Amino acid sequence: MKNVLGLINLHENEELLKELTRQRPLAAVPFGGRYRLVDFVLSNMVNSGIVNVGIVVKHKARSIMDHLRSGKEWDLARKRDGLFILPPPDHTHYSNSIYKGDLEHFHNHVDFLQRSSQEYVIVAGSHTVYNTDYREAFRYHLEKQADITIIYKEEQPAPGKQYSLATLVKVDDGGRVTDMQVSTGRIAGGPVCLETFIMRKSLLLEIIEDCVAHGEYDFVKEGIVKRLGRLRVYGFPFTGYMAKINSVQAYFRANMDLLQPEVWQDLFLKSGPVYTKVKDEPPANYRDQVAASNVLVANGCIIEGRVENSLLFRSVRVHRGAYVNNCIIMQKGEIGPNAVLENVICDKDVHISAAKRLIGDKNYVMVIEKGMKV
């Protein structure tokens, strides 16, 4: 797929994730012990043979740039093509709430698209976590002679926050997409769009120019949905594990899913490895009398207490006498002696002092924001 350009669109709705995205874009939110959300879509592209990737950043670019650096870990540090960060042109412009939509940003970087040598483009977001090889979907796109191919998963979600910001598609028996519902609060269920679109680069440029000229700036709603009747839009079904990170509860649930071996294997092994920023740290250290059950523990951790049904990211320390159950503890978190945590998300560099008791609800987890000391 060297003839395909990858375009990762980070203009994503963070309304229900403010506790985790206050200091970073959604794409840079840690996930699964040692990864960031952007690692999954970027690894999908690299594993599919894509060698030219642009990342359209909406705001708070420093965190994502620090994580991706030159793209070496994804084999994208190249003399030709490679990894390109496409930052917002003016942070002040967006902070004043004048931002119109992702097509405005696409239009600001249209020269990047024009200069790329690839004929086709895959546009994808970072908030949908799944592992796939795009080559099969690309072959389907060519066989159908489609203008746009949308990758979707056959889901039947119940109405509620889990899919309140999802895009649903209607697909007929021939695979043609006949309708799409975007960002509805109450949905009846149906195939869920993975926010991944395949098309010719020339068509994308045409959509950008036409929409911006008519004052339309939403890529999905105004660039694709309004053209369903004019273009040959097909759906390609995805059958593996998929999670949409569109709320704190969805983030918590997706991480907890990784404690199931079949989910972990599907997400990390099925279609290729997931790459991330390399950090050289020692293996996890389980001290005497430790009790750990059904946990996912990253390297650099020191565990002296009791941990159950939880994820510990890199360099977390759980002191003696502490009890951690059904929790997510991110990088360099420290749980003091005899502290008790249940149904809690601790962001990076959180320190819980001795004997503190923090109890959240399974349906409404407690979030301790980055760098806090409790």
UniProtKB/TrEMBL annotation:
Keyword Transferase found: yes
Superkingdom, natural source: Bacteria
InterPro entries: ADP-Glc_PPase, GlgDAde_trans, GlmU/GlgC-like_hexapep, NTP_transferase_dom, Nucleotide-diphossugar_trans, Trimer_LpxA-like_sf
Residues in coiled coil: none
Gene Ontology molecular function: any one: glucose-1-phosphate adenylyltransferase activity
Key words, A-Z: Glycogen biosynthesis, Nucleotidyltransferase, Transferase
First and last residue of the signal peptide: none
Domain Nucleotidyl transferase per the UniProt entry, residue ranges: 17-180
NCBIfam families assigned to the protein according to its UniProt record, in alphabetical order: glgD
Similarity remark: Belongs to the bacterial/plant glucose-1-phosphate adenylyltransferase family.
Name under which the protein is recorded: Glucose-1-phosphate adenylyltransferase subunit GlgD
Species annotation: Anaeroselena agilis
